[in-house]
Design goal:
about 300 residues, alpha/beta, TIM Barrel, 12 helices, binds 3-hydroxy-3-methylglutaryl-coenzyme A, binds magnesium ion
Length: about 300
Amino acid sequence: MALPDHVRIVEVGPRDGLQNEPGQIIATEVKVELINRLSDAGLSHIEAASFVSPKWVPQMADGTEVLAAIERKKGVTYSALTPNLRGMENALRAGVDEVAVFSAASEEFTQKNINCSIRESLDRFLPVVELARSENIPVRGYVSTVLGCPYAGDISPQQVAAVSRELIDMGCYEISLGDTIGVGTPLKAKKMLEAVAAEVEIHRLAAHFHDTYGQALANIYAVLEEGLAVVDTSTAGLGGCPYAKGASGNVATEDVVYMLNGLNISSGIDLDKLARTGHWITRQLGRSNGSKVAMALGCEA
Ligand code: HMG
Ligand code: MG
């Protein structure tokens, strides 16, 4: 299949990137500035917060304050994770444009991440989706561990397809397929996508690949070849999941944009501004930049 002309990037750095940051709680102002810089760099979909239990993920406890303080740029979608009705109500009060529910293809991971079975998680999402619908808020669905689980090992593509189908039937407009611990390789990613695309139209699927084993760009290229055109990324390659031991950051937004530019695939993102943002946030966090492209460009904020 021909590569797409345009790829929609969903920037998950302010959520997936920051949720796992060890040490000190990141200041609300830093999160707000990160989001504002990202929108200025042309990101049109930014996952800005997470309305989960602060006992489970302390770094995301200030979602309401973050959403209240950002400069909302026209045309930009500011979304947040909502694991249950309580999270959804808080997200609505904070004025999100979109929410995301999240389950997994692995029972073991679902238990560790949201303390319930896959079935219970789907049942829990029903009222979330219902409330979202009544407020005209689109709901995205995540399926984690699509290419492997830190607790269960191999995952069957059919299981990924079945959970994805249920989330679509429930009313999610798009399913983001998470290689949570970045263990996938291109052929495996293609086979998984093939199985899911038999159940859910490919234009409703997104790739959410972590780069733990350095395979994310190759895996993204492989699924673009299959016709997928939505990719989740994190500036400077920040992040990881606190409930997936060993999970490192998402694929770096800078690296994906550089690859897309080389393929003549538009994304609407200004790579220099983005790279400066990545350098800025890594300095704020006192950590190294996980984007090879940003390091090569050497931009200074
Ligand atoms: P639980 O302990 O089973 O539920 O947690 P609970 O109802 O007993 O609640 C525990 C406490 O949290 C209670 O407080 C609740 O009130 C409170 P207490 O009575 O003890 O003082 N609580 C909440 N507070 C604020 N907002 C809420 C909320 N809900 C309950 N929404 C729960 C169940 C789902 C809440 C918990 O397991 C949780 O928050 N998990 C979130 C874990 C998480 O955020 N993981 C990272 C995101 S997923 C990810 O990174 C993967 C992804 O990137 C894709 C990929 O890479 O694969 C998306
Ligand atoms: Mg993730």
